[in-house]
Amino acid sequence: MNPGFREVLSKVQEVLGKYPNRDYTVLRDVEGRVRVIVEDTQGAIPEGDIHKLEQDLRGALGGWLGQSTPVWGLRKKREKLTPSEKLIVEELDRTRVSLGNNVHLVERHVAKAAWTGQTPYSPPWSLEDVRNDQAPPILTFFSHKGGVGRSTALIATGLLLAREGEDVVLVDLDLEAPGLSVIFGEDLVPDLGVLDLLAIPEAGNTPIDEEPVKRATFTVTDNALVGDGRLRVLTAGKIDDAYMEMLARLDVHAGARRNDLLVRMKALFQTIQAAWQPKWILVDARAGFHDLGGLMLASLSHAAVMVLTANPQSDHGLRRVVRLLKAPHTSAGGPPIPLVLAHGLAPAPGSGGQAERDRVRERAYDILLQEYYSSETAPSLGAEGQPHDPLPLPWVPALRGQGGTLDVEVAELLREKPYQDLLARVRDTIR
């Protein structure tokens, strides 16, 4: 009987534990099947040992063991490897992670690579440049669940900044359910969008010119909304048959050629910066574990705003998000990517919902204490303004179902104190 997917690695380690004094690299392919490379730096590995190990692994794993050359021995000392073998060993050394007891793992994914920690942190410019006012912060708004006020929080932040005279660009990366353009007026939607800019051949090596980026962007000109500032919206794209075809191919591209996509996304932000020199770039990411959201959080953002709720589902999303944000610290010793939490659909002050707000805060604290904070510098639960301290964004009936064009009355709601507090927290976190 085949073990379950979750049991495979423990079964592999159990078998390999019977063959000590060698190094093992477990390769798990995109279908979940495993192969094992056995390395003995002291000399050759007897063919009989390879055959016996393969038999034991087949008995333990069944169909989870690869069919073609499931166990491969490196039979020479490293200094005697052929050039092709050296390339293989160098790649393994670069990508594998230790499972303990001389066993290492290399995972291969078609999708969700950023969420599994396999994408390097590589923003278009550094947080130091942001804090020295040499470049804008790229701020990603994320939620594990949809319908909790993520896009509303992003729009409110953009409007507040614009009314303060700032130059802001909103980028719609919610490609499966784009909506930023419609909110400001469907007649403003350009023929091009983010998806058109990403879905091209050899995306990793092709620069992005300013002209198509400008074609994919519109400017909000209503002074009642933006005051004296400037708010630009880089749309997802025109929703037609071509959009769906591009989206289908982008999903494949995100897995099979994710490094190219990362380079392409960096180039997009660099072109935005060159075209307009904005003070802020706010990105609306897809709810849930979508590839582009993971890429933004793991690799490209200078800070993240996560909107969570009292629903326990939010805890799973928060745990994964803070692991991504902590990854630069874990890998290179730097600080984690800054985080702001907001409590979406929160009970209004005075409504008797303090117990719910306390529960959300306590759960966030427990998760960040395990996954994000350094043990030496972790704040106390009662510390205000810290990453674990979610800002309540109360549920407002007037915003319910607000998916059409933004009007002045609704814009007034987005300038009220909860969203002002959110902007203040964002500024404190980034600066």
Would you kindly provide a written description of the structure presented here, covering whatever features stand out?
- With 431 residues, the protein is α/β, with parallel strands linked by helices.
- The radius of gyration is 25 Å and the shape is globular.
- The model has no long low-confidence stretch (mean pLDDT 86).
- It is built from 16 helices and 13 strands.
- β2, α2 and β3 form a beta-alpha-beta unit.
- α1 (8-16) runs antiparallel to α2, α10 (241-256) crosses α11 and α13 (313-332) runs parallel beside α14.
- Helix content is 41%, strand content 16%.
- It starts with 7 loop residues before the first helix and ends with a helix.
- The protein has helices spanning 8-16, 47-61, 83-95, 127-131, 150-163, 180-183, 194-198, 210-215, 223-226, 241-256, 258-276, 291-300, 313-332, 354-371, 408-413, 417-430; strands at 23-28, 34-39, 71-74, 97-100, 103-107, 138-142, 167-173, 217-220, 230-234, 280-285, 303-308, 339-346, 391-394.
- The strands form 2 sheets. The chain has an 8-stranded mixed beta sheet with strand order 8-9-7-10-6-11-12-13, sandwiched between helices.
- It has 2 domains: 5-108, GMP Synthetase, Chain A, domain 3 (2-Layer Sandwich); 120-430, 3-Layer(aba) Sandwich (Rossmann fold), CATH 3.40.50.300.
